[in-house]
Amino acid sequence: MAKKISAAPALKDYKTNTFVDGDMEIRFAVGPEETKTMDTQKLIDNFLVKDLMVADTIKLVYSHYDRVIIGGAVPATKTLTLGNHPELRAAYFLERREMGIINVGGKGTVTADGQKFDLEKLSCLYLGKGTKKISFSSASKKAPAVFYILSAPAHATYPNAVFTKEQASPVDLGAAETSNKRTVYKYIHLEGLQSCQLVMGLTILAPGSVWNSVPPHTHTRRMEAYFYFDLPTDQRLFHFMGNPAESRHMVMANNEAVISPPWSTHFGCGTTNYGFIWGMAGENLVYSDMDPAPVPTVK
Ligand SMILES: O=C[C@H](O)[C@@H](O)CC(=O)C(=O)O
Ligand SMILES: [Zn+2]
Questions:
Q1: Is 155 annotated as a binding residue?
Q2: Is the CB of 182 under 6 A from ligand 1?
Q3: For Zn(2+), which residues are the binding ones (predicted)?
Q4: What pTM was computed for the model?
């Protein structure tokens, strides 16, 4: 017999692509036709995630691209516990979902059903479907942990496990001559931490290198989200998105995330070097499954 879920809410009259539902923001998916008509504010409203890392808060944004939830948790002065959300119609958050968590702050701990996982800066924790109780804490109030969260629907349970940056098979890409010398660290992917559909890792730009993800690409098989970190407060990141023949940009600050629809490119240029967490969900777990959009084809 079907499990009872919470009562149906009142029918909503959706007039906007995005709205706040309790403590989670919901963003519907839009296509390339609508996107190319957007002005700066509309692009920001639909794709940018500002104020993701707020002290003593868990922030969540539910994107309808592959139903990925983007989140931030900063346990500054107290332990934070992940709640459920009515929009999931689930008994608990990971009843039918999986989650990847990467710490970009001071030493922290994620406790999952009583098991403690200590996460140094740039360590990644995978939590499988069925994990019921999740909480976030910091080792020191002086340097709180800053947890970036990505969650996607899941059909099977894979083990909860940690990967450090050193375990994440670093690959050097780009060159100083093209200002895109960088190292890619893969955590959750076919040959790393196992998952149903999450693929997650991070990229660090070398000093003097500012361009990420060039040459650009798309992958209609998977949506992607980028989360920029270690960008000084007086510097900015110019993130490019859209149909490669109709590129648009948004100006981003440190610890902000941006949603990339499956049909969109995603690449950026900083006013200095920085790091970013990338994460995807969709058809496959093959990191290299990308369709190139060479620089001369971008308009
Ligand atoms: O689909 C893969 C992602 O867009 C990123 O992994 C690309 C990236 O980190 C880079 O080139 O710097
Ligand atoms: Zn990509």
A1: no
A2: yes
A3: 217, 219, 224, 266
A4: 0.96
Task: Look up the ipTM and state it.
Answer: 0.99
**Residue 1 confidence (pLDDT) above 50:** no
* Cβ within 8 Å of residue 33, ≥6 positions away: none
Compute, in angstroms, the gap from residue 71 CA to the centroid of ligand 1.
20
Res 46 pLDDT > 80: yes
pLDDT of 7: 52
Distance 3 CA to ligand 2 centre (A): 37
- Dist CA 130 CA 286 (whole Å): 24
C-alpha 272/C-alpha 205 separation (Å) is 9
Which tens digit of pLDDT belongs to each residue from 141-191?
A: 999 999 999 999 999 999 999 999 999 989 999 999 999 999 999 999 999
**Residue ranges per domain, the chain?**
18-297
Query: Is 219 annotated for ligand binding?
Result: yes
CATH of the domain spanning 18-297:
2.60.120.10
Q: Whose CA is nearest to atom 8 of ligand 1?
A: 213
> What gap in Å lies between CA 198 and CA 281, rounded to an integer?
5
In this structure, the number of other CB atoms found within 10 A of the CB of residue 159 comes to 9
Taking alpha carbons only, the member of 147, 175, 151 closest to residue 73 is 147
* Average pLDDT value over all residues in the chain: 95
Please give the distance, rounded to the nearest whole angstrom, from the Cα atom of residue 171 to the centre of ligand 1: 11
Q: In the predicted model, is pLDDT for residue 5 greater than 80?
A: no
Extract the tokens encoding 287.
């990191």
DSSP string, 130-169: T---EEEEES-SSS---EEEEEEE-SS----EEE-GGGS-
